[in-house]
Amino acid sequence: MQIKIVEAKLGREKAVGQCFHGENLIEIDPRQSERERLDTVIHEVLHLCCPEWAEEEVIRVSQILSSVLWKCRYRRFL
To answer: CB under 8 Å to 62, separation ≥6 — which residues?
Structure first.
């Protein structure tokens, strides 16, 4: 599965990320810290990969994964 990630200010949507299943597209609000961005990207990828999961499960797993990756010093390089 190829997933496209784009930055978009999502203030009107009152969200920091959103995914579009039919398009394999994720929009990420760029006004987040790097730590929050990592969690948001994982969160939205989980929505695409596991659409049957409840929101609570997506939140739980994304927080675990982003915490582990952050502690392992995974960072975005521009």
So the answer is: 39, 42, 43, 46
pLDDT in tens, 17-68: 999 999 999 999 999 999 999 999 999 999 999 999 999 999 999 999 999 9
Tokens coding 65: 């994964």
The model carries a pTM of 0.92
Contacts of 39 (CB under 8 A, 6+ apart): 62, 63, 66
- What is the arrangement of strands in the sheet containing 4-7, beginning at the earlier edge strand? 4-7, 25-28, 17-20
Cα 44 versus chain centre, distance: 4
State the amino acid at position 78 in one-letter form: L
